[in-house]
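Batch manifest line 142
LIGAND: magnesium ion
JOB: complex structure
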Amino acid sequence: MVERTLSIVKPDAVARGLIGEILRRFESAGLKIVATKLIRLSRSRAEAFYAVHKERPFYASLTEYMSSGSVLVSVLEGEGAIMRNREIMGATDPAKAAPGTIRRDCGKDVEKNAVHGSDGAETAAWEIAFFFTPEEIHSGRQ
Ligand code: IDP
Ligand code: MG
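JOB STATUS: finished
ARTIFACT:
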């Protein structure tokens, strides 16, 4: 099934000039970039995006970090895009991520792990709508 998923290149990766490297990996894996923009999240917007993690001990640190610099938010489209993107990203902790994954190669630690990716169909729909209007998404299929 052709799906859409939300990707974020996090502040640590943007700051280290890794946008091109990361987008290349998506495209090489057959994921199409159908929307993208560089933005800066306010602290309150980062808190809203990660509201599901409100009770976790790392919530304050995570939302401070995610609002500390520019991020590249993108919509990726393709066959099984949600799980495909999770595979390319690798495990949450770069030290535990498989060789060749983005987090293993580009992440710094379990928090500054270079990329975010939606974890399921419902989350993907919510996260895409959090950042993009339908008019901003261009699959070339309309
Ligand atoms: P995911 O990004 O692989 O889906 P989640 O468990 O949803 O992982 O956590 C969201 C984000 O919170 C992670 O990508 C990472 O930036 C941060 N995070 C997760 N676990 C920890 C932790 O144990 N310490 C610090 N930050 C964490
Ligand atoms: Mg998650």
